[in-house]
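step=encode ok
step=design start
structure_in=
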């Protein structure tokens, strides 16, 4: 069978995506993907269900997470790909981040109440379930209540950075995030580089700290994707691709909208196999199941 590409960045209902890991496997297969990596914000506990659902489908299911880093006041996202979801230090740190995300969610709901927007916190927490509480959960509740027409409007008017109901979030340090990913046997990748003030400086500094790759192919990088890919190659960093899919209604991004071709995928897969061995984590099985 020919290679259908690798989408290495999207979210399930274990963070701020809407679909379950099993539903995402069906969506990935329907999109013709050969490889798919689940990268929930601050969560790896959806990976087991994701891998289990892929058995018998022919999809190579990869585990990961997306970590929010505070780098001198700038919000930077690091993808940890291929990491072992059972690695104890990572699990413990992620549990702490999800706890403070829950407190922050409650604080945002309180701010909204003070602004005259009354939301049902227990009902929102029910939609979060065992996952990571994020602003999209609050935004969707506002849409359901008719306070705003769309998730985008909720961010523009209330929840966006510096908005009236915004509450900052606890974040990783850049060094700390890269070390945690590598210790768990994963590759550390700079997500959507177009977001940052000086992506080139960040890539060079990140590389000194052990950064492995760059998500050159991401919907937000539009027009600059090949530039980021050459920059990565010049620095000896791997290139990855991801759709950043969250839901079929929130943002217009579709699963598989960005895919890594076979040659680049093989480079990444080989590096991941080596990293697992170096970190003393279980051997990766990247054969279709
Ligand atoms: P949080 O991690 O709770 O700060 O929420 C950040 C998440 O909100 C991102 O990962 C996106 O899923 C989503 N998001 C951020 N900005 C917007 C926006 N302007 N419109 C819709 N969703 C957004
Ligand atoms: Fe998100
Ligand atoms: Fe991100
Ligand atoms: Zn993402």
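sequence_out=
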């Amino acid at each position: 069978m020919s290679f259908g590409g690798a989408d290495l960045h999207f979210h399930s209902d274990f963070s701020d995506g809407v679909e379950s890991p099993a539903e995402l496997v069906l969506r990935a297969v329907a999109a013709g993907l050969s490889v798919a990596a689940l990268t929930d914000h601050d969560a790896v506990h959806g990976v087991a269900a994701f891998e289990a659902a892929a058995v018998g489908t022919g999809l190579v299911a990869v585990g990961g997470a997306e970590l929010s880093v505070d780098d001198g006041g700038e919000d930077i996202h690091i993808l940890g790909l291929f990491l072992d979801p059972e690695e104890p230090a990572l699990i413990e740190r992620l549990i702490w981040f999800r706890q403070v995300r829950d407190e922050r969610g409650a604080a945002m709901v309180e701010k909204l109440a003070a602004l005259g927007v009354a939301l049902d916190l227990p009902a929102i927490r029910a939609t979060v379930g065992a996952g990571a509480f994020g602003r999209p959960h609050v935004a969707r509740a506002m849409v359901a209540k008719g306070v705003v027409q769309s998730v985008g409007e909720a961010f523009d008017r209330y929840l966006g950075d510096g908005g009236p109901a915004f509450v900052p979030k606890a974040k990783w340090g850049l060094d700390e995030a890269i070390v945690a990913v590598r210790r768990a046997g994963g590759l550390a990748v700079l997500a959507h580089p177009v977001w940052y003030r000086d992506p080139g400086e960040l890539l060079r500094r990140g590389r000194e700290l052990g950064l492995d790759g760059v998500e050159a192919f991401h919907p937000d990088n539009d027009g600059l994707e090949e530039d980021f890919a050459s920059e990565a190659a010049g620095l000896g960093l791997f290139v990855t691709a991801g759709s950043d899919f969250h839901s079929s209604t929130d943002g217009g991004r579709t699963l598989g909208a960005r895919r890594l071709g076979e040659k680049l995928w093989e480079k990444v897969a080989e590096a991941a196999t080596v990293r697992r061995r170096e970190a003393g984590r279980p051997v990766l099985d990247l054969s279709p199941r």
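step=design ok
step=annotate ok -> Residues 16, 41, 134-136, 151-152, 155, 160, 169, 246, 251 surround adenosine monophosphate (ligand 1) (CB under 6 Å).
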